[in-house]
Amino acid sequence: xxxxxxxxxxxxxxxxxxxxxxxxxxxxxxxxxxxxxxxxxxxxxxxxxxxxxxxxxxxxxxxxxxxxxxxxxxxxxxxxxxxxxxxxxxxxxxxxxxxxxxxxxxxxxxxxxxxxxxxxxxxxxxxxxxxxxxxxxxxxxxxxxxxxxxxxxxxxxxxxxxxxxxxxxxxxxxxxxxxxxxxxxxxxxx
Amino acid sequence: xxxxxxxxxxxxxxxxxxxxxxxxxxxxxxxxxxxxxxxxxxxxxxxxxxxxxxxxxxxxxxxxxxxxxxxxxxxxxxxxxxxxxxxxxxxxxxxxxxxxxxxxxxxxxxxxxxxxxxxxxxxxxxxxxxxxxxxxxxxxxxxxxxxxxxxxxxxxxxxxxxxxxxxxxxxxxxxxxxxxxxxxxxxxxx
Lengths: 190, 190
What we know:
The structure is a homodimer.
Chain A (H helix, E strand, L loop, with lengths): L14 H13 L5 E12 L2 E11 L2 E13 L14 H23 L4 E13 L17 E10 L3 H13 L2 H7 L4 E7 L1
Antiparallel strand pairs in A: 1-2, 2-3, 4-5
Helix pairs in contact in A: 2-3, 2-4
């Protein structure tokens, strides 16, 4: 599926190609099997850097247009050097960005022109869990994440809310957080 | 808790301050209640940008040393512009960075000097879910995430593996992914 600049765009979304992609996947479901990847290097202390370049999808190895690197550290109050956001903060970007992309796609498919989508994400976490000080009564992860969207466009309140709700129903990150995701860990030592 | 440069560091971790922080939290558990935050702005199509600056912790509003911005987009094969990694790829950084920080902290607390920690993370996802083409039989999120660590240091294989395992047990992101995390979504329209 290649993007053509001739197609009209709604919200920056090429709706004709989006529907054509859906038809292509219906005809050949193997296209939909993807594997995303990151590599991470420890930089010292609680500081590390990840790199994204390639992924597998549409039955082939693919490369992102740009290589992207992101870093994490712990804040000084947690005895890190605060060189970058904490690992858990990246989950907040993930949920906001996934829902926002979905809102743009769903709105475009429904013929709604958006003029603004912004959000704030808050994640509450009690560090008694990860510090091992709760006797197991406090979980390690977020106790809850709250996403607050502000959406503007050429549709009424109910229509815009329905678009957000449809995005939630189709969101990969919403599902990854709210339903258990199996994580396996393998180790080699040198 | 302030970091002093006089304390010796193991793996870049100030172990004395780490243990002092644990003691401080034991004495006043309110210190451990944190809220992390991100704000996100839609840039058009499936492209958006998040910003991290402040957070709440240790009973006060705090600012990161640097403001960090990260972006996401969908790849061209999914009718995006591939300006940045997908939202789901940020989960892969999150799990790698969280486990890596924990490995450095746990190793330091156990007196093990590490010389290398690297990892690759792979997340398998079948897009039939988010495309709404599976009739509900395929989940939207990752079907599984696999983290492969390579760890080197002045300890034997079993000791290094035990450090990784302890990091997993105390990992916020591992818990956030493998156990259900409540996510609430609120909407205002303009």
